[in-house]
Batch of 2 targets.
Target 1
Amino acid sequence: MTALPSTGASWGVDHLARACAACQCRWLLPAPQATQCPWCGTTGTLSEASFRVPAPEHIRTNAASREAVARTLRRALARIPAALRPPDLDPRRLEDRLRAVFVCRWQVDSDVHGSWSCQAGFDYDVETHRERRVAGGWDVQKINRTHIDWEPRHGTLARHIDNVPAPALVEHRRIESVLGPLDGDDHRPYQPGDVAQGAVMLPNLSQAEAWNRAQDSLDEEITQLVQAACGAQHIQNVKIDARYDNQNWTLLLTPLWTTHYQDSRGAIRHIRVHGPSGAMRGELCADHKKLTLARWGTRLAAVALGAVGVWNPTGLIPPPLVVMIAAMILFLGPRLLPESAKLDNQTAG
């Protein structure tokens, strides 16, 4: 691994290295973005830092453009009337804060030498017959069942395995649980221009800390190789005694989009977009006070309409009809005012 100056020279970009005291994220940031953390949205929490991180080998394809994300946000925001939105929930502000963020994942190549043993399962069919009495005689029904023949197998292993995934971030599982996988085959070689305008979330898990997860992934791949070598349909009780040599660690970048706003209670609400899939996660919330006033206004209007219907000085509309309409407004009106618009089923496009 080579030393990474604060200018990000080893990545081929003129970025600044920063650490966020609020969310503990490590960053390479373009100079104009170096005052606010792209992930937690706080200001005044970034400090100068220096990290030793190699330039990435691959970057995943970003299927969600900035324009597509902004367009989808505007469509979703239209579900909340402008009069009910908190002041900060403005389409222009969301677009101004929209940032490209690239998150890292380790990939490790390794030579594997050792031995293995397992129980290999082979399917075979057994034909039986069932007889039953029917009108006029006996009916014979043929029944085929599949059984598994388990046999012990063992052998040796000498392989080179490439691009085994391992987490590079403490937040890895939480990010994947919300947005989706941070690894995939939809990648290409990294070019410095890929992150020229974006923020890079640098690893906060060392290679040593990520090795346990990488070894689990290696063992899963070895298990698949063992099953293929046995020609078995099933496999169990796999035991691997191997050593892993000549490890080569590289980084894979996954592009995301992120923006945020402050809700009516003062909390920061984040909106994230998974670049390769376009999947969006977040919630656009109406202003709590404005929504409460609007709901009470609807109820009062319904009560007033019902009172007019009962009095009904003109007699043009039958009082029962007016009262029925007022009752519908009273009970349905407040429920029709949207409290929020969830983005979990939205895809940027």
Note: Residues 289-341 form one domain.
Target 2
Amino acid sequence: MMEQDAEAKTERAPSVEELIIQMSMLNYEPLPMLEVIVERMVLSLTSSLKNFTAALVEVSLAHFEYKSYSNAMDSLPAHGLIAVCNADPWGGQLLMTLDARFLYAALELMLGGQPKRAVTKVSPRGFTAIERRLGQRLVEVMLTDLREGFEQIGEVSFSVERIESNRHFAIISQPSSASVWLQLDVSFDGCRGSVMLVIPYGTLDQVRPLLTKVFYGDRLGDETWRKHLSNRIETSTVSLTALLHEQSFAMTDVLNWTIGDTIELRLEEDHPATMLLSGVPMFRGVMGKKQNGSAAIRITEELHEKDGTNHAVDHD
């Protein structure tokens, strides 16, 4: 008994300082494009699972978080079916977990029963060979929707390597490595379950630069809204600043300036000027005067790169 108490004391929870150090060692680079892909996967899953189970299905994204791999694994259900999946040609793996309520409700529907009856009989037992096989088919259906979501950034195929029921046998990354953990809530005729995905950052290395983009070749909204937004942008006004000259002065000289001092800028009438938009150089031009005597700038060079800009709204 005393030995058990000693072991319990040694297995203490980490302190706040230790958690801060642990979190600072992880690189949680946001992947906004992955969030868009998951949202599209959720929309397509509603139709795919409905066709697969012949039941009324509702799918929603409950959580999308960046965690260490160990914390992501701790978030998986204690009783569930874990599919270890390969991602080719990325050369990495991901995990898809079906909790017991989701699995039994889906199996009951696939076999012609009622999902509520299956959910009331959930117990922490091992899965049979039939349950594993049908669970793998469910995973393959969802992996197909995930693959279609990734098509806009590159070709990839997902396949199930093996099925596990113990998460300690489904280790695919280092405990301290960064990963994405997400949870989908699924309802079959009112019976709710969940599906969880764990995607290590190492699996996404080849496409991570593309996943950091907010939009990737996507049109914003429907056609009517896109035209309306395009017209509003084209008729909006912006403020341009003409930068005529920059000159360095000693700090002692600046501190000694007083009212009435004259600062020589050494500017000619055709001195070059730079046009700035919100501090960004847009054009370079030459100073001059119009016939009415007012100052003007004749643009001689474009400084911004049109091809390097990813426009969400384009012209028809």
Note: The beta strands are 57-68, 80-88, 92-99, 157-164, 178-188, 191-200, 240-243, 272-277, 280-289, 295-302.
